[in-house]
Structures are given as structure tokens and as C-alpha cells.
Q: What sequence folds into this?
């Protein structure tokens, strides 16, 4: 992920002869103003030569040489989606008898080069998302190893198209070679503190694809509610959801989210956080949570998962067996954050257990005892796991492929140093808690973060595989989630995709302003960056 | 407005005999939980006796004694609106052959007592919004002097209805006597920094009525754009709007806003702010703005309205003549805030004029010179005016009926003291700039404001006629305005309507949580206060 294709001097010399310019757009300023790539590709050249796209003639097609064809429904769906983004409601395609003009772009050929295009596969941490895009008359060519790179390239292609003064779609002669800087570029949504209707989740997956995000970290359950319908333990949602019918995700809802995400090259990593953040689990599963004591009698309230009972581990084994089959991704997020020890401390049985195990009064040892057994249970399902940083901090023995998520703002750099120093891969979310709002353009603060600024060796830095923008659910639901997330999360998208050198906030402002209008035009109610307007304002409420 | 109907001891004694309780709901806790009046009425009694409402039988009707009848389209529309709020999509009304049960509520009789119900009138600062509501089987009676009080009572009636476990609409035996604490309860929306589609404005007028707000302060134009289409000076929007066709308010749009507001008892007070905040005016009207100088030559930029040219005043006379006919309210807001003197200082003609007038270098005298002439122009149209506090601060001679709007947060109490001390009526917006956002439940801060806490005589306090929640447009447009405004503005609504003694934040939290779910159910995407859920979540995006 870390090799940066710098422009070779020779290549530059040749290009200047042909009137190209690198790294920025040239040509008629008016038209160039309309273009706004987000996130910025790693390498691109564009010239003033413009081609026209006619909705009656233009097609997105499989290249002859491509390993994918009309049977690749992932690509067929993507072709339709991007055709509609570009041409709007003008869906009627007429085979025009007139010949195309030389100044027309008549097709985009999508060329999958690998033997297996992965049409029916799932994206993964190892997925190659690189692509090459060349726009020239009469055909543009998008070349990628597999469908995942093609999806990224299709988004870029659609962003290159702009309307001229006559409302005609134009695209400039362009060459792009692109790949992500980081492999894990995620959005966390929390469907427990407020239930998020399917519609909201799908709309945000759409928006994620527009920003080249590739991981949906689904913080699906937590203390307040348990909306996930488990086939093995239906009581969990029957008694733990806000409402057992209207505020739940059925197995087919979950399938739909996973498939909708897959079609956009997005992994779905579910988080089932234990042993803390589990109040809602206790409604359906007897004895799962630790009974808290008030003096010598149970107080009637409950704490984290009870770590001293075998039944807790038996439950977890069955539960995560189900989860490992429902969610195809190689990783499950196991949480492990913010365990409150007060209930454990109050419980005489837990204290006795501590004594037996020789933990003294160090309850983080008990926490690690639990987590260690849980990790072994999950490892047995052949899944990898992600955990919040406390699990690492408490010295739990982790599998080599564990991804540690750094979320605490204080001592963030020290933590990155420690986690990578111990040889673990890590993702960063600490600077990107988007639930914290403030007046003004806070996207700039997210944009200015440099994830690799911590002190460490090159080897350590390679272990930082990405980051996540987190929108915790205390104050968001279907009414306000989407405009609160976008385009603020877009700042994180560019930081995680584009080259490290792409840091100009003022240029970013111009591009992002247009990018957010593009999202609005595509139906996403992304909020404004500042004073101004979009050609097509939001049509919803 | 300031007489507070405290519960007379005699009345209380009688009521206790009949099993009533005052000031809070009694009865089956489960059902009482469903009720949540917002803003809280001045005086109410409710008992555990519940009546059922059948959509097949229940009607809202004109009382026989009422001065209004089916010809009163304002009320007819309101009856339909509140019937739909209560019964949702069940619009079919069948004259049931079965007799109503004794436990049914079969009708709400609306009784307008004044000779003129004001069906075709407009609400004003002097409007009597009081009403009395009595719910008892078989009929509820809503009594008000005119339609404006009836509208407030209909909202309250609809808030009293709750669903029981069978989904049947119930209403408890209730007596309410209600009136607003303050006469001016406004919302400021800014349609210049971002254009607000008509749909957004109308939706927010709906939400205002649900919260008993009665003034829409329409900050319609400002520096960035001029969306108001003037019949007299069409160039203003043709050259000053973001787009002359898509980002403008046509005369019929404006009429629709005014009529939609009128039907809900809401005044529309347009603000045409001068001499500052007028950059967008300069595009269409030659020589209206002051040319700024760089040394001895014009710099090409422009400042506030040029106060030294007669043509400026001639323009204003014609312009405000039009405004005074387009907007029926007795008041126009003339702005007068934040005048930047640097351009005037740079201009040699202005400096010469200052000298001639003997203003020295005190440019606030020039500002007052302009405002004074403007006020006289507007007074000649028989309109009253509202102004931002600077106009008062600068010592401009104001008409007795001028309303001074206090918006500066620092020394707010001192300013209230000064303005009322000088005998002017005032409204408060300083603590309620809702465009400033922060993490968490900032509604509580708005709720805790006591507008009359400044030092002053009773006579001074009576001059505070209300307040406004302001949502300036830097960071909001159609994508995020509505959830950002609601239910945060609801906190201001209760502060301005309910008795001074209604200050319990914890009780307010419970009621407001339900009130916001009610708004959501009615189609307003009001954002959540905190973790939780609504029975009917938002159906939009």
C-alpha cells in the first residue's frame, strides 16, 4: 500500500511535448471548474481536449479482452448505476442511425485483467483496488485486475463528466492511474443507541461508494438495544430490541445490507462488543450478565458479561458460530472497550473467582481472562478479529492478524507506536469521531490528520492499514444521520485514499464543495460546507 | 400578557372533591405516559377518566353558538389537518349506524365567541391567542375569542390524544385554560446564505404551529444572494440571486408562504437589512452601494448602501412601497446591524459629505443619518418597523412602536435594561442563535434562559414582548435545516409560551422526547434528544 508512484522525470518530459499537464487540470477554466475529483487520484493527467457524451449513444461495456462479461451482475449493476448518475433520468437509449462525431466519447470499456474477475466474491483486506483509466475518443478504457478496482474507476469516471453551458455532458482527455494509500477505509454506524432503518444504512453505503470507502463497521448492538435477530437466540432481539418487529434487522435485512455493500466493494464488519456494552443482551439470555450486589444482596442491576460461568462461554461459542456464517467478511469486531469493573467488584462470587485465579484485585486481569477465552472461541470459527485498543493495552495475547483499533484521543501517537511496535496491524479512529460536532468547518480538522505522523520505523508505519470515521448514535437517527455524516466523512475518505502530499485545504474546499453538490444531486442530503448553492438543490425535506 | 392565572384556592378545593388533580396528570400511569403537552399550558386539570375516539364517528365541528361556520376556510383547513394528525391515514368517515358508547368522545366543538372570528384576517402582535378547552363525554368544547386562539387549542387537543394498547385513540377528561406568556414567539430563517426551497419553509411553518410559534422572521436577502423577486426592481433577483429561475421566490411563492403561515396563525415579517449586508443588491441596482477606494482610485469593490446619494433614498422609497403591499403584517424588519465603516472611510465623496454634515469622523452618525431617513420612508408606508439593536445603540430616533431586537450575547441584560428603559418594546434573540451547534443537549441551555431576569421595573419588563430562535444560514440548507432546528427550537417555544415557573429540565426532557416523536410521526425530521426510539421512526432519508 505504501509505494508512491511519483512522476518519473522522463514521463514528464514526454508529456509536456504532447500538451499534457500533470497533477492539475488545464484547459478552458470554465469547464475545468466543473470537475472535482474526490478523493483525488494518485496520478492523473488531463488536457483541454473535451469529448461529448450523448445519452442516446454512450454505453458502458465490457472490453473484449475482459475476463468479465454480461454474466457479471456486480458490474452490470454498476454500469447501470453510473450511467444513471451521469445522465440522470434520461434512461432511454436509442441506437442512433447517425454516426457518432469524432468529438464524441461513445463508450467506456471496462477491462478486467485477472483470470478471476471476482464477480461473485467479496472484497477483503487484501483486495487490489487499483485501476487505470484512459479517456480518449472514441473510447475510454478502464483497466483493473478485478471488479473491485473497476468499481473505484467507475466512480472516478463519473466524477470526470461535467455539463457544459448547453447542458451537454463533456469529459476531457484524461489518463489516471490510481490506488488507495490505505487498505481499510471505514465508516462506523451505531444501530443500537438509535435504530437505523434499512433505508438509512443503504443510503449511506451509496454515499460511502461515492467516497471510495470500503468498510462498513456495523456497531449493530450495544447497551440500549439489540436489533440483530439471531436465529440461534431469537430472545436476544425479542427482548432486547426497542421493538421486536419494527426495530430489528431480520436475517434478510442483514443479507441485503451485505449484498448492497458487496455490489459497491464494501466489506461489512459487524461488531458484537463484549463483555461491556451488553445491557441489552441480558434481557434475552438468563445469567449472561454479572448480577451486581449492593452490600451482601443482589441489587437487581447487572454488569458486564459474567466471566466466571462456563455458560457464558458456551453461549458465546454458539452465538459467534452463527455470526461467523451470517457475515462473510474474514473479520469480526469483538469490541472489548470501556469495561466497568464496579459490578464485578461488588459480586462476592466474582471476588472469590479472582482469588482462586490469583488475580488479586486487578480486574483488568479478569477482563483479559474473558477476552482471551472469547478470542479463542472466535478463532475456532476461522475468523480474524478486530478489537478496541483496551484489549491490547491490557496485555491480552492476540493472533498475529488481529487488527487493533485506536480510538482514544489522548496519547494516540504513543498508542500507535506501541501497537505497531508489538507487531500488530492497527486502524485509527481517534481523530475521526464525527458524533462530536462543533460550529464551523470541522471537516478541515479531520482532513489535516496525518495517520503516520507518530514516531516509528517504516515497518511500524506499514502496520497502520487505515482508519475509520465513527458516528456514534447518541444524538443521531434517521432524521439527521446522513447530513451529519456527509460531507464531513469525505474529509476522512480523501485522507485515507489519496497521496500523503494531498494536504491543501483551500483546494480541498473547492473540490469538496462540488463533490458535496454531486452527492446532493445523486440524492444524498450532504450538508453544505459553507455559504453558497448547488445547481441541483436537495429535493427531499 | 403578564397576568398569570394562578390556581385560586377555592377552585382547587372544589376540584379535589371531584377527583381532579392540577398541574400534572394522574390516572393510569401507562396511558398518562403517552401524553406530552408542549409547550405546557398555563393551567390544566386532567383526570383518570378516559374516552375513546373512533375515526368513523369522531368529528371536529363548529359549535352552534360559534360566530364561525363552514365558510371559515381557515378553520375548515385546521379541522382537517388536526383530524389527520390524530387519525393518520384513516380518512374515511362512515356515519356509523351504531350509537356511540357513553365512553366515547364523539366531537370537538369549536366555539368562536367574538362577533368577528377573523377567518380571513391576519394574526398580529395584538392577537388574543388564549383559549379554553374542556374534554368530557360526549363532547369536547374549545372556546376562543377568534380563530387564532382556536388554532392553539386545536394543537393542544391533538396533543392530548394518545393510543392505548389496542391502538385505539383515547383522551382523558381534561380542562385547560391557556394563553401565551409572550406575544412575539419567532423563528428566523435565512434564505440568502443558502436558498431554502419553498418546501423547506412550509415544513418549518408546520413545525412552528406544532410548537405554538407565531412569527416567521424571514431574513430573505443578505450579502450572498437576493432571492426575492421584486416586481418594481426585477434586476435585483435577476442579477442578485444564485440563479434567476431556480433560486428565487416568485410573487406567488411569497403569497403561498404568507397564506400557509396565516392558516397556522403565524405572522410573516420580512427582513430587508440595510445599509450593510447588501452586497447582493448591488448587482442589480447601479450606484446603490458605496464604491470603495484603494488610495485615490475606486478599488472595484463595494460597501454598504451609499448614504450620500438621493438616488439611494428614492430607490428605498419605491422598494419599500412594494414590500409594504406584498407583506400584510404591520411590521417590516429593517435590519441595521453590523455596518462596516471601512469602505465609507475609504471613499473621498463620503468623507466630504461627513465634513459637510459636521459628523467629524464618527461614522455611526452617518449610519444613523441613513437609517433615520429610511425609517421615515418606511413610516410613510404606514408600517411599523423592527430593527437590530445597533440602531437603538447608535441613538437613532425611533417611532414609539418600534421593536428593537437584542441579539448580542455580551451585556445582553444591560441592553434589555437600556432599551426598555428608553420605553421601547424589545424582543430577545441573543441566547437563541441556534446556528451555533455543540455536542450534547444544548436545548437545555436555551430552555433555562429567563428573558425577564434583567434588572428593571415592572413597566420595563412588560416591554419585552417575546423572543426569536435564529437559524442563520452559513451552514444550513435543505439538507440539514429541519433536524437542526427541531426540537432545539421547541425549548424556546416553551420558554416563550408557558408560565415562568415551568423550569424543570428533567420533566421537560420527558415531555420533549415525546413531543419530538410526535413531530417525527407528523413528518417533521426532528432530531433525537438522546438515546432512545420513537414508535414511528422517520420515514424519509
A:
Amino acid at each position: 500500500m505504501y509505494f508512491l508512484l511519483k512522476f518519473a522525470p522522463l514521463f514528464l518530459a514526454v508529456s509536456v511535448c504532447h500538451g499534457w499537464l500533470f497533477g492539475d487540470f488545464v484547459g478552458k477554466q470554465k469547464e475545468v471548474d466543473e470537475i472535482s475529483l474526490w478523493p483525488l487520484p494518485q496520478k492523473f493527467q488531463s488536457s483541454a481536449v473535451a469529448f461529448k457524451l450523448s445519452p442516446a449513444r454512450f454505453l458502458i461495456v465490457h472490453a473484449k479482452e475482459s475476463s468479465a462479461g454480461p454474466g457479471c451482475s456486480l458490474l452490470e449493476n454498476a454500469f447501470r448505476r453510473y450511467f444513471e448518475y451521469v445522465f440522470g433520468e434520461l434512461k432511454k437509449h436509442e441506437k442512433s442511425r447517425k454516426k457518432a462525431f469524432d468529438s464524441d466519447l461513445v463508450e467506456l470499456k471496462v477491462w478486467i485483467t485477472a483470470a478471476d474477475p471476482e464477480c461473485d466474491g467479496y472484497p477483503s483486506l487484501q483486495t487490489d483496488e487499483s485501476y487505470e483509466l484512459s479517456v480518449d475518443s472514441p473510447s475510454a478504457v478502464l483497466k483493473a485486475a478485478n471488479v473491485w478496482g473497476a468499481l473505484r474507476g467507475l466512480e472516478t469516471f463519473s466524477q470526470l463528466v461535467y455539463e457544459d453551458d448547453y447542458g451537454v455532458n463533456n469529459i476531457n482527455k484524461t489518463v489516471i492511474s490510481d490506488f488507495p494509500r490505505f487498505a481499510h477505509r471505514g465508516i462506523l454506524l451505531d444501530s443500537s443507541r438509535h435504530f437505523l432503518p434499512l433505508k438509512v444504512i443503504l443510503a449511506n453505503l451509496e454515499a460511502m461508494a461515492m467516497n471510495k470507502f470500503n468498510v462498513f463497521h456495523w456497531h449493530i448492538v450495544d447497551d440500549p438495544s439489540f436489533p440483530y435477530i439471531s436465529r440461534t437466540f431469537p430472545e436476544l432481539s425479542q427482548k432486547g430490541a426497542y421493538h421486536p418487529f419494527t426495530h430489528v434487522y431480520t436475517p434478510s435485512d442483514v443479507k441485503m445490507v451485505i449484498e448492497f455493500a458487496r455490489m459497491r466493494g464494501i466489506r461489512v464488519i459487524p461488531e458484537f462488543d463484549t463483555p461491556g456494552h451488553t445491557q441489552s443482551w441480558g434481557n434475552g439470555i438468563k445469567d449472561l450478565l454479572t448480577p451486581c450486589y449492593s452490600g451482601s444482596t443482589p441489587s437487581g442491576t447487572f454488569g458486564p458479561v459474567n466471566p466466571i460461568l462456563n455458560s457464558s462461554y458456551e453461549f458465546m461459542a454458539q452465538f459467534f458460530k452463527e455470526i461467523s456464517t451470517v457475515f462473510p467478511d474474514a473479520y469480526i469486531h469483538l469490541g472489548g472497550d470501556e469495561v466497568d469493573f464496579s459490578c464485578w467488584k461488588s459480586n462476592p462470587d466474582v471476588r472469590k473467582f479472582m482469588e482462586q485465579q490469583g488475580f488479586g484485585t486487578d480486574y483488568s486481569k479478569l477482563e483479559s481472562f474473558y477476552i482471551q477465552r472469547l478470542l479463542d472461541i472466535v478463532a475456532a470459527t476461522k475468523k480474524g478479529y478486530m478489537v478496541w485498543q483496551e484489549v491490547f493495552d491490557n496485555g491480552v495475547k492476540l493472533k498475529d492478524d488481529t487488527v487493533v483499533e485506536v480510538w482514544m484521543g489522548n496519547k494516540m501517537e504513543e498508542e500507535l507506536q506501541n501497537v505497531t511496535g508489538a507487531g500488530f496491524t492497527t486502524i485509527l479512529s481517534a481523530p475521526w469521531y464525527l458524533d462530536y460536532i462543533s460550529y464551523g468547518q470541522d471537516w478541515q480538522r479531520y482532513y489535516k490528520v496525518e495517520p503516520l505522523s507518530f514516531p516509528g520505523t517504516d515497518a511500524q508505519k506499514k502496520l497502520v492499514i487505515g482508519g475509520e470515521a465513527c458516528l456514534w448514535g447518541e444524538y443521531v437517527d434517521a432524521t439527521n444521520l446522513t447530513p451529519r455524516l456527509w460531507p464531513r466523512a469525505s474529509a476522512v475518505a480523501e485522507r485515507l485514499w489519496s497521496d500523503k502530499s494531498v494536504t491543501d485545504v483551500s483546494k480541498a474546499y473547492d473540490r469538496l464543495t462540488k463533490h458535496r453538490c454531486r452527492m446532493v444531486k445523486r440524492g444524498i442530503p450532504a450538508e453544505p460546507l459553507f455559504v453558497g448553492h448547488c445547481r441541483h438543490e436537495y429535493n427531499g425535506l
Q: What stands out?
A: Confidence is low (pLDDT under 50) at residues 1-32 of chain B. The two ends of chain B are 41 Å apart (CA to CA).
